[in-house]
Design goal:
two-stranded antiparallel ribbon, alpha/beta, globular, 13 helices
């Protein structure tokens, strides 16, 4: 088993090994004295893995209930959050009990925010079941929901008690969902590790399972390093947003319904690199294409840019964007929003 220790204000470990889901109960029992848990999952993941997780928890002495909601970004809402709170009340959850996020980024984000806010804070564990969630959203403590004004605008920093990554669960992902996770993996190579980028360049969506364990470990270790230096996203951690400024705009333009986050990140990375670091554009695009990811958009830039003005990374009239003038090195640039628009529209 590989372990990565995250040394934040509330330290925890990320465990990486194939087959860990069936052992989740004993692993969670080692980090908490609680023996009452609620699994929060969606209808897709719950059908595949809900019983395995619940059985493991029960075998380790946990009283366990499960809350299931419809899959998709639309469920990361105030309405669904309220339903989770009501279910926790019905189950008589107290501050000494624990939530288990079993699913992808939507499940992890809303469960984490519920844990941060219910009774002013209870413990939770992340069991990410998508590649994107394993390498990105399950680690680092960012939790959130979407509101009509924008994506992830309401949330809290809440570090999990433990993160359990089982690569075997990724084998049941649709190819489109696996590709979405590769958008974030490619981002890590671009911002911090050229060798990781080269490893991904040498494979495709069809062969990526051959490097999955090494790739997941490397991506999480990069995020560990960044988060430990800037837990609350006031400086260096912003490099993790490479591709996200335009990526979130693409998601918003599509009303968060038919455009996946990882696809937005890939397209956003390619769009900004094409404009501001064209020497790496062809290499980045080829890598994205190998994983069936978009490398641009037909949507006019003047339709996307208004969505960028609502991004949570903005400060007053300025916007922070990330650029990689070298593969493996990221730079944070702060400019007036109008200047950013001119750069992208030229």
């Amino acid at each position: 088993m590989k372990k990565i220790s995250i040394r934040t204000s509330h330290p925890y470990e990320v465990l990486i090994e194939r087959g860990l889901l069936s052992k989740c109960g004993e692993l969670i029992a080692q980090v908490t004295s609680s023996r009452k848990a609620v699994i929060v999952t969606d209808d897709t993941v719950g059908g595949l893995y809900g019983d395995i997780a619940a059985d493991s928890l029960k075998k380790s002495g946990f009283e366990c209930d499960t809350f299931t909601f419809p899959h998709g970004e639309q469920s990361k809402s105030l309405s669904n959050l309220g339903d989770i709170y009501d279910f926790l009340c019905k189950c008589n959850i107290t501050r000494s009990d624990i939530l288990i996020a079993l699913g992808g980024g939507v499940v992890g984000d809303i469960t984490g925010f519920a844990a941060a806010s219910f009774l002013r804070g209870i413990d939770f564990v992340q069991i990410p079941t998508t590649l994107l969630a394993q390498v990105d959203s399950s680690v680092g403590g960012k939790t959130a929901i979407d509101i009509p004004g924008g994506k992830n605008l309401v949330g809290a920093f809440k570090q999990p008690l433990l993160v359990i990554c089982d690569s075997d669960v990724l084998k049941t992902l649709p190819k489109e969902t696996l590709a979405e996770g590769m958008g974030e993996c490619i981002k890590y190579g671009m911002i911090r590790d050229e060798k990781l980028f080269e490893l991904m360049e040498s494979h495709t969506l069809e062969t990526v399972d051959d490097i999955m364990d090494e790739m997941v470990y490397s991506c999480i270790d990069i995020k560990r390093d960044v988060v430990e230096h800037d837990e609350f996203d006031r400086g260096e951690r912003m490099i993790l947003n490479f591709g996200h400024t335009l990526g979130h705009a693409l998601e918003a333009w599509h009303h968060y319904t038919d455009y996946a986050h990882g696809c937005g990140v890939a397209a956003g990375m390619c769009l900004i690199t094409d404009k501001l670091a064209p020497q790496h554009s062809e290499r980045l695009k080829k890598c994205c294409e190998a994983y069936k990811l978009p490398t641009g958009t037909d949507i006019p830039m003047n339709e996307l840019l208004p969505f960028c003005s609502k991004d949570k990374k903005n400060e007053a009239k300025n916007i922070n964007y990330i650029i990689c003038n070298e593969i493996g090195k990221a730079e944070i640039v702060k400019v007036p929003f109008g200047e950013f628009c001119r750069l992208m529209e030229d």
